From TrEMBL:
Pfam families: GFO_IDH_MocA, GFO_IDH_MocA_C3
Classification via InterPro entries: Gfo-Idh-MocA_inositol_DH (IPR050424), Gfo/Idh/MocA-like_OxRdtase_N (IPR000683), GFO_IDH_MocA-like_dom (IPR055170), MI/DCI_dehydrogenase (IPR023794), NAD(P)-bd_dom_sf (IPR036291)
UniProt keyword Oxidoreductase, yes or no: yes
Identification of the protein by name: Inositol 2-dehydrogenase
EC number: 1.1.1.18
Species name: Marivivens niveibacter
Length: 341
């Protein structure tokens, strides 16, 4: 029997996830959609799916087993709380929510429910290259990690919709999360430096250099550039005691022509992480079909809001901004494994 899913938010990533849920993956059906722009929901709805006027009606519909939230960050809290109240598994795109207080409210609701229901959309954890990098690190063959370098470059970002704080509270969350996951460590402080601005970025603070201080003493250095024009360029390199481990260049056809010998660069996140999103949903479908969630947790979403807030404070202060966390609820310490198909 397939999992019947309702999708809230049918913009760029909502449409991409509807495509993978209907055309790529098995064991799942998209039976419902909603968007505040009804016309967008109607044109994105797969054949036979019902278009709901409100997220609440979609969440509570008895034909919907599980929900995928792809609306804007500020709308996530209300939608997540409604999913938890209905006892339905939910995949929520990053950012989980947009403040630490809001993340705590969602955690409290999930803890009170007594079982994990929420998976956050940190897709890098499902990418085969990042998984291999972690396997090498965890083998201990290179000794202890000392530093990690994370490069996050977007060709461009949507003008008007992507605002000045977003390199730090929208884009950086991926580098923060993957660093925590790779190093199995928490971030305790954040520093930010703002170099010469790119003239392509209008009013944006772009690029930015961020230093994430991990509790083990490892320092993660992150470059965020969101208007590099040439493509979507994601890099990662771990410096360990006796060697270096890095993400490989992505395989792509080698073209030889009048411009030289070259390989294409992905245009955006859809292309670079296409297999990672597929795997992320494969694992989500397996867990949601069992009435629960695995993968990135509400706790992971909470910590990324703390990093974003500290990074925004660090831009103003020019100093190392410390991160204070609440105690981690036991629900998020247990390792749950549900086999993907
Ligand atoms: N994991 C990733 O790599 C990745 C990539 C892109 C976007 N995202 C995240 O996905 C979310 C959506 O991003 P996008 O690029 O698709 O944006 P988008 O603007 O293209 O689409 C968002 C859609 O949500 C709808 N919406 C907004 N508020 C709503 C509400 N309250 N109820 C119902 N619908 C609502 C909008 O009308 C719009 O159609 C964001 O949180 C973004 O950060 C994640
Ligand atoms: O919402 C997107 C998405 O999360 C991408 O993965 C990231 O590279 C972009 O910078 C961000 O704006």
């Amino acid at each position: 029997m397939s999992l019947k899913v309702g999708v809230i938010g049918t913009g760029m990533i909502g449409q991409d996830h509807i495509r993978r849920l209907t055309q790529v993956l098995s064991g799942v059906e998209v039976v419902a959609v909603n968007d505040i722009a009804m016309d967008r929901a109607e044109s994105a709805a797969p054949a036979g799916a019902k278009v709901f006027e409100t997220p609440q009606e979609l969440i509570n519909d008895e034909n919907v087993d599980a929900i995928v939230i792809c609306s804007w960050g500020p709308a996530h809290e209300e939608q997540l709380l409604a999913c938890i109240a209905a006892g339905k598994p939910v995949f929520c795109e990053k950012p989980l929510v947009t403040s630490a207080e809001s993340a705590i409210r969602v955690m409290e609701a999930e803890v009170a429910y007594g079982k994990r229901l929420v998976q956050v959309g940190f897709m890098r954890r499902f990418d085969a290259d990042y998984r291999r990098l972690k396997t090498v690190l965890d083998s201990g063959a290179l000794g202890a990690p000392l530093m990690y370098k994370s490069v996050h470059r977007n060709a461009s970002v949507p003008e008007g919709l992507y605002t000045s704080d977003m390199p730090l509270n929208d884009t950086l969350v991926h580098d923060a999360d993957i660093s925590r996951w790779l190093l199995d460590d928490e971030i305790t402080g954040v520093e930010v430096r703002v170099p010469r601005r790119s003239t392509r970025g209008n009013d944006l603070r772009d690029p930015v250099m961020v230093m994430l201080h991990m509790s083990s003493g490892v320092i993660v250095d992150v470059e965020i550039s969101v208007n590099v024009a040439y493509g979507y360029d994601i890099r990662g390199e771990l410096s360990c005691e006796t060697g270096i481990a890095a993400l490989p260049n992505r395989p792509a056809t080698v073209i030889t022509d009048q411009f030289g010998i070259r390989q294409a660069i992905p245009e955006d996140w859809r292309e670079r992480f296409i297999e990672a999103y597929d795997q992320e949903f494969r694992e989500w479908i397996a867990a949601a079909s069992a009435g629960t969630a695995t993968g990135p947790t509400t706790w992971d979403g909470y910590t990324s809001t703390l990093v974003a807030d500290a990074a925004l404070r660090a831009v103003d202060s020019g100093k190392l901004e410390k991160i204070e966390m609440i105690e981690k609820p036991a629900l998020y310490s247990a390792v749950e494994k549900i086999a993907a198909e």
